[in-house]
Amino acid sequence: MAPTPIIRSFDSRADYDACVRLQRETWGQDFVDVVPATILMVSQRVGGVSAGAFDADGRLLGFVFGISGIRDGKPAHWSDMLAVRPEARGAGLGKRLKHFQRDQLLERGIRRMLWTYDPLVARNANLNLNGLGARPVEYVANMYGDTRSALHAGLDTDRFVVEWRLDEAGPAKEGGAGPGKKRAATVVTGTAPVVDPAWFERERPLPTDPWVRVAAPADIDGLKAADPACARAWQQAQRRAFTWYLADGYRVSGFEHRRAPDDSHYLVTREPDPAIGAPAAAGGSSQSPATEDR
What we know:
This protein is an alpha+beta fold. The strands form three sheets. Strands 1, 2, 3, 4, 5, 6, 7 and 14 form an eight-stranded mixed beta sheet that branches. A four-stranded mixed beta sheet has the order 8-9-11-10. 28% of the residues lie in helices and 27% in strands. The longest helix has 20 residues, at 228-247. The protein contains eight helices and 14 strands.
């Protein structure tokens, strides 16, 4: 068996340069948001994290990078990038990198980490929500704009912002759906409503049950390559659903992960009314690992 990769902080110019090369290999040679070696280096001097997973020959297999600052008057960390080489995926390196990052931050007294990921990517949702115990706190449409990344394949950069409470970190129960999931209504599926863009133009009312489900496609990467229009329809459906539900007193409380060809589902629940301890009525808003973060 091959030796277990070593996770450590970057400590040489060669490490930083290798990270820059891996960014371009992951997001494409035309990617405009590459973090340069000097920023990877100096961020560590003020509480940031630049670290990688290395094989026995010293080759960089994956990395994580984030910066530290202040949010809501308290120290917080923004994890900006994580990537693992395709040939090294499936061995838990992404999760190991996140836990290394967590340990570094806890040593510095930082107990909150935030990052973004594409809610269309089921494997990343499973890692972030079920594997790590992070929770979505915001849905941002086209957050990064046009980054010229080959990974986006013409889609907008819609993202979930997730928060990880580092001193409470722990994996969620597998499936993440909790009680009531069998009663949850499916809002988005991989059938005709998603394939037909006109379905969204008609602005059909979204269900207002206490529990609803919003689907993530079984293979968004395959859809981007084979049927870009369908991939865009999936994104439109998620955008409409998450924007409306999060503005109307719901929260993303779990993720039910299924392997292809089955779609996965986010469980979205109405926040309980603290006065009565039961689901509150919906408001009337009119608002419509591999890799993560970018």
